[in-house]
Amino acid sequence: METVSVVPEKETITEEVKLITGSEALMRSLVAEGVDTIFGYPGGAIMPVYDALYDFQDQLHHILVRHEQGAAHAAEGYARITGRAGVCLVTSGPGATNLVTGIADALIDSTPMVCLIGQVGKSLLGTDAFQETDVIGVTMPISKWNYQVTNADEIPEIISKAFYIAQSGRPGPVVIDITKNAQQELMTKPFQYQCCQTLVSYRPRLIPKQDQVEKAAELINNAKKPYMLVGHGVLIAKAEKELLAFAEKTGIPVATTLLGQSAFPADHPLYAGWLGMHGNYGPNVMTNECDVLIGIGMRFDDRVTGNATLFAPQAKVVHIEIDPAEIDKIIKADAPVIGDAREVLNRLIPLVQPNDHTVWRNEFRKYDAIEEEKVKRPALAPTTEKIKMPEVIDLLSKKTNGEAVLVADVGQHQMMASAYYQYKRPNSLITSGGLGTMGFALPAAFGAKVGDPSREVIAIIGDGCFQMTIQELGTIAQSKLPVKAIILNNNYLGMVRQWQQLFYERRYSFVELQNPDFITIAKGFGIDGHTCNHREDLSASLDTLLNSDKPYLLEVIVEKEENVFPMVPAGTSVASIRLE
Amino acid sequence: MTTYTICIFTENTIGLLNRITIIFTRRRINIESLTVSETERKGVSRFTIVIKHESREAVEKLVRQIRKIVEVLAVFGYLNEDVVYNEIALFKIETPLGAKPLDIETINNQYKAWVVYWGLDYVVIEKTGTEEEIFTFFEYIKPHSILEFVRSGRVAVGKTEKGLVEYLPEAEWEYYL
Ligand SMILES: Cc1ncc(C[n+]2csc(CCOP(=O)(O)OP(=O)(O)O)c2C)c(N)n1
Ligand SMILES: [Mg+2]
């Protein structure tokens, strides 16, 4: 027996006598849902909610961002580190449209988020009223679910549904558009909140079908050269321990996708590296050597497969994935297993035979040696006058013992942050993978720090990216949280410049930046920082950054025309990977 | 190009048509016809969407994407042979004085079409059938000067013995009985 939104199990709040406004109901719903933080920005159509929030400040910590895009990315950072939905609260019209990039980003990177958006009063809907935007229409293709609330009575049920949908199955952003009258008016019935735990039409499969698991186990047991590709789904499912147990039992080498980084310890002997356009040499080319490819919580993105028709044509594919629409979408699966990564691995572990695949694993090593020789060594012991990005990340990795959280923006510095940091703990690389949203890092790093203040959070940002959400320095300064940021300044939109160099005959078309003095700007916001220009100062500079108990900005001036390698040119086979 | 009939069962909420068509638009799949109505279960709507596509795989992917919409209860992609289907068409035919009279007997017996309205100098003929049957009749009636012609879009039910109950057993739906 199942109805739309019940099972009174978690927390049930019942208020007998007093009828409350929609805004207060919203506050109480958030409290009941266990929300502790809201990233928001007020405005006309959401004022009744902000007024109610005034009385709930102790329970709902509201953080005033400087731009709604900052709220969205901060909520994403918060969600990525806590596993719980990040909450945004903004006004209608421009407040809502400023969230759009972050919502799209959260959808493609499976990040739980609940966006609460003010809307003009019900009677004004469709009249081009002041700051009226069709938010439901705008966000329909970029949200997991959206809903327009037009009366106060709906609020508790819709909020519980919103959190359930955002956080369950394959997580994603949910948008709730709340008309002003619904915020203002009194509910007609006593407030009551019941956490939603099931819906009739939405039933993500967590527990896999046994026959699918058995078929997968059989393929894995018969494999001579099995190879595991691990994605964000493992982190979302909190299946790192199970993955480790599975890998150690079977001896199967593990590579991660960009978003799968830190799902498997980088210093583990079974860790092969990461794969994708700028991933490691061996992990990329070995996709075309293995006989069984096991994708776990990943979706064979084109930045992973290159030309998909040439991707692992020889391999039988086991695809473990919670979203059935991902099965066969890009790569045909011989053994699909639909379910939560942790639930699947737990059932798979007893069915697989112990193995060690030493000979096969050693085949990766010869590629590692070539990459070491051609790419890593010159990158880490450069003869150039200017510092190179890999040096910074490598030194940072050593100084933090691979235990910090890096929040990387988008571009060359992002790829270097992924390639040269030895991630040892889960959820340690937070970056915009699917959408590649420049400007993600600063607010997301802030959100991550809010979500887990116990971890050292360091944003790695390009000089271009920094200027997309630079205003969030204000949010960080006001919060006083010790968020650290490193700008790797090459004075270029480096990644685009690299493409222009390699594929457009060095015709540098609008990629050079005349940058402001970032440190002066930071200081203007009340954030301390300094610039590091010389290799001999790098270590001390990083120490200053790490030792600061306040927010800190370190700008490192790096080699201007450095390229990221390895590189699989877009649309080609992973076999066409270039090392120089 | 193969014709596929996509049957989508959904909760009856605002904006669902939009949610569904977005998925077609994004993949540049043209909708040939579309009908929506409530099913034998209260609050459950049925969309019947006809498309033409050369790739069965693409249609399967489309079906899975539609299934992801939160309010969607079930989706089925059928080939023509898997379904019983029909459309209804209305023809408004000019019948001015002195024109060749309509051969009602042929229209009724051969084409299984019926005059459902007699106007002063026109009639409305209703024809139920497959797209092909409707167009065969269209060819036949064309010489009579068609003032207006409208087709409903396909309605279809699967040829399996299963009813909705077998597909959506979990829910407690109210029935129209
Ligand atoms: C919002 C947005 N606009 C444009 C792009 C395209 N783009 C990808 S990387 C990049 C350059 C980033 O420059 P910078 O932040 O300096 O990083 P670098 O590559 O130099 O390390 C651009 C423009 C993008 N990903 N996102
Ligand atoms: Mg740059």
Automatic annotation (TrEMBL), chain A:
Cofactor, free-text remark: Binds 1 thiamine pyrophosphate per subunit. Binds 1 Mg(2+) ion per subunit.
Domain Thiamine pyrophosphate enzyme central: start-end pairs: 213-348
Thiamine pyrophosphate enzyme N-terminal TPP-binding domain: residues covered: 21-135
InterPro entries in alphabetical order: Acetolactate_synth_lsu, AHAS_TPP, DHS-like_NAD/FAD-binding_dom, THDP-binding, Thiamin_PyroP_enz_cen_dom, Thiamin_PyroP_enz_TPP-bd_dom, TPP-bd_CS, TPP_enz
Pfam families with a match to the protein in the record: TPP_enzyme_C, TPP_enzyme_M, TPP_enzyme_N
Gene Ontology terms, MF aspect: acetolactate synthase activity; flavin adenine dinucleotide binding; magnesium ion binding; thiamine pyrophosphate binding
Annotated protein name in UniProt: Acetolactate synthase
Reactions the enzyme catalyzes: 2 pyruvate + H(+) = (2S)-2-acetolactate + CO2
Listed NCBIfam families: acolac_lg (TIGR00118)
Taxonomic source organism: Fibrisoma limi BUZ 3
Record-linked SUPFAM superfamilies: DHS-like NAD/FAD-binding domain (SSF52467), Thiamin diphosphate-binding fold (THDP-binding) (SSF52518)
Recorded superkingdom: Bacteria
UniProtKB/TrEMBL annotation, chain B:
Residues annotated as domain ACT: 5-80
Protein's UniProt keywords contain Transferase: yes
InterPro entries in the record: Acetalactate_synth_ssu (IPR004789), Acetolactate_synth/TF_NikR_C (IPR027271), Acetolactate_synth_ssu_C (IPR019455), ACT-like_dom_sf (IPR045865), ACT_dom (IPR002912), AHAS_ACT (IPR039557), AHAS_small-like_ACT (IPR054480)
Protein keywords: Amino-acid biosynthesis, Branched-chain amino acid biosynthesis, Transferase
Pfam families given in the database record: ACT_AHAS_ss (PF22629), ALS_ss_C (PF10369)
Principal EC category: transferase
GO molecular function per UniProt: acetolactate synthase activity; acetolactate synthase regulator activity
GO BP, one annotated term: L-valine biosynthetic process
GO CC annotation terms, alphabetical: cytosol
Catalytic activity: 2 pyruvate + H(+) = (2S)-2-acetolactate + CO2
EC number: 2.2.1.6
Classification via PROSITE patterns: ACT
The protein's annotated pathway: Amino-acid biosynthesis; L-valine biosynthesis; L-valine from pyruvate: step 1/4; Amino-acid biosynthesis; L-isoleucine biosynthesis; L-isoleucine from 2-oxobutanoate: step 1/4
SUPFAM superfamilies on file: ACT-like (SSF55021)
Gene3D superfamilies (alphabetical): 3.30.70.260, ACT-like. Chain A, domain 2
Entry function: Catalyzes the conversion of 2 pyruvate molecules into acetolactate in the first common step of the biosynthetic pathway of the branched-amino acids such as leucine, isoleucine, and valine.
UniProt subunit comment: Dimer of large and small chains.
Similarity-based family: Belongs to the acetolactate synthase small subunit family.
Protein name (database record): Acetolactate synthase small subunit
Lineage, broadest ranks: Bacteria, Pseudomonadati, Bacteroidota, Cytophagia, Cytophagales
